[in-house]
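Look over this one:
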Amino acid sequence: MTLRFRDEPLPQGIAHTSCDESQSACAVTSRDRVRCWSILRAVAIVLVALATCKIAPQAFSADFMEDFEGERPSWRIQVTNQRSAQVRLQRRSKVAVKSGETSEEVQIAVEGNRQVVLFQHDLPPSVPIEDVSLSIALKSNVPATILAVRIVFPRQVDPRNGKVLHCYVHGDRYTDVDRWQTLTVAPSARLLKDRIARLRSELISEQLDLNDAYFDRAVLLAEIAPGTGAFHIDDMRWKGHASPTRRESPPPKIEEPRTQTSHAQMRRDRLLIDGKPVIPRFAPHHDEPVGRLQALGLNLVWIDDYTDVKRLNELREYGLWALATPPQPPSSDTESPGDASLSLEPFDDKTDGIIAWWMSNRLPAEARQEIEAQARVVRAADRDRARPLLADIGGLERTYSRLFDGVGLSRHPLQTDFEIKDYRQFLTQKVRQLRPGMFVSTWVQTEIEPRPGVVTPQLVEPEQIRLLAYAALAAGCRGIGYWKTSSFHGEFPGARERELIIAIINQEIELLEPWLATRTVTHFEKVPLGEFVKTRETFLDRNKPVSTRLRVKDPPKTANAPGGPAEEFRSYVDDEIEMAIFHGPDSQLLIPMWYERDSQFVPGHMAAKNIEITIPGTFDNPTIWEVSTTKVRSLKYERVAGTKVRLENFDQLTAIVISTDPNLGNLLRQRVEAMQERSAVMWLSLAQAKLERTREVDQRLQKLGAGIPDVPWYLDRAAGLTKVGADNFERIAATRSTAGSQVRQTNYTTTADYDTIRFSAQAALQAVRIAQRMHWENAVGNQRSPLYTPYLVSFQSLPEHRQFIERIGAAPAGQIANLLADGDFENTDTNRMIAAGWKHSQIEIEGIQAGAELGQNPRPHGRALRLLAIPKPNAADIPVALEGNPISVSTPPINVRAGQFVHVSGSIHLRKPPAASLEGVTLTENLANTRLHWKQTRGWEQFEFVREVTADTPLVLKLTLHGLGEAQFDDLRIVAVEPQEPFKADPKRRAAALPSNP
């Protein structure tokens, strides 16, 4: 695809053409191509009729020839960045000629990054006919230079910049470096048809007037590496052209939008605002200053009062739109729920600041009738503007996706045992259950709901917010909401980090929006990490003693693991990077992302000095860039079974753009230059803020006797890296204070400086993450799950976990009576269990039969609770994903008192991973709303967790099978322990209760 940005002036000295001169994809559509090719039958020569528009009468002319024999050069050179590229020489020269005595010689000096330069030469205008062709002889040291011809559509305005629409039709690519080669472009019907199809996708418009189209210009596009690019051009031939006979026609006009129409439109799975596809980036409004929301890079804000005209006007003043909750229709006691006869007053122009209606969050399946009635009422009241109706849903995906213009699919996986890769797969699965072409958004978790008894705020790390946002984009979400329940002004540790990472993510999305808003992920590719992961050594370890360098945590030792330790280790370290591929007709966006295990609790290193990625099925002769908000880096590649590229200093995720248009890199660089300074500032501020918070937690852990010797080294390393970034800012400031000529001479280096600042900040964040992960893994120790206590799920609450363990003491839980009657499942009288309070529930799912029973346990313990869900015999279709949970069993309520510690333990066995659900099997408790989650087990596995009771309440456990398969539970125990002072005073018992270091 061709990247289109808002119209920006070119540097002084460069002619600004009617559209972005550096764009190479044609701005025509397949239907309109047919119109472009029709020639009047009155002409005596057989003309090519290719469509539904008329070409002005024309006269065929002799071939146009330019031998470049005169004295004055005739090519116009367009250098879009005069700071980095300058024309050193342009003349008619005898140094190298193809024929005759002279050719046109051009030399261009490039400093810093690669630059795309355009050579333009006027041609006699010609209507698009089948036999027209252009050829040029070229000798150059710049490979991959492309010859193109420009076609103009004088009756059509380009809606992206308000100017006359035009495009380029590509021809041959220069390959014979330093030798004469004849390049040709023949804009055939097939070639124009391809270009037309691309424009239809870019403009998303069926109403294009392509009458009177004509070719008018020869173009050479060259991407020049740092150094001097030399060009000799000779023997230009414009063959078979037919000059149009111009007829008077009014200039194209852009229709003024009617006040009674919405600024937002839904086109398939895309949201257009004022005709431009966008990725909505929004958050709930909690009385923050609107300027602060704008600074975060949001473009929408969710408000709950649609009548707040003052707030709506203020949002528009800052260029923001509102998502608003619509009013509830009036009701009366005589009307039944969902009564469609109710109505609202039509919305007036005071609501024009609202771009779309946000119906509700997590709409349950049982609310369908009521929501359908409300949707009809809102649409009727908004008939003049017809704004989109959006809603976040919690079931009935196919039904709700027919009711709304866009749906939200949300889940909060952080600080649970639902992996971030599972989260991506969950969203992908849910998207496939919607009607095709549905616009999808999601709420990204930015805060944790307070847990009972947890005093320290459990934070969402900034890396987790970024991982969740990109996982959602990879899953097909076109809108990102940042979920919060309080103001961004909140005074809590990590508040500033949250703002910074949201602003960074939004800046990255804005840069990649042309792909993210219009392209669909075609598939995912796994990127094996291979031998590198076994050591995890990167540049952070260069000055660290070998004995203390970071090593991957030892894989779990399981005696009955199939395949032995080697298979166990591979399953632990491989396939953690997954690459999402956004495919377009002439370009691709690739996002490789590191889905590290347990990163939903505390993110780890997720960085590599070098990784190799093999890209399947790329274009012929592509240009490949790695894109960040501070630099666009050209990547070398080699052809293997695909296209292999090497990424240096990979950190969590990156963006790779592949295109057949070498000018695309230059357009990206222009955008990056406008945002690189702010990006570097934000990354450095984020590293400094996270380092300060982590130091404070580390000092608290040291005082509690839980310090780790290597952690101070990594924190000091992070401090040194942030200082490097700050020093670079001072150097750039000093450069700006010099004379203007000196600025022009040295300015090309500032791009690298800003990129160096970002790199230093990200390296500092790596070091801080390593320190956090060390503390977390040390605290988890030999526990089977980080959910063992409510404090292990977050780095911020690790000191409280340490204190919690000391308060528990070393109570011999195994010697205390089990409060859960029949938890060993040896009782054969199920009626007695039901009378005691055991409950089971199951839902009817077509083609599925489910049940719970006390089955024989192959272990010596006798019986176990068996949950089973299987397809019915002769079932026609087995669902890919189940809507609902086939079977669940709840324990009797066990009364516990405030101040007690409750220890829950048991065993689980899954014969194979449950099918048709990503949830697998879960165990839920109602004290802290914890949910243990299993997708597979290696034989029988034990589980346990400890909770502090904060109020007198009944404790209930719920065991649920979410998919097809079989799950067995056994030895389920609930033990309540009273805190005892001797346990706290006995250091040996206290030590026995603490997890040991890994």
Summary: The CA atoms of residues 788 and 945 lie 4 Å apart. The mean pLDDT is 81. The longest strand covers residues 146-158. DSSP finds 18 helices and 45 strands in the chain.
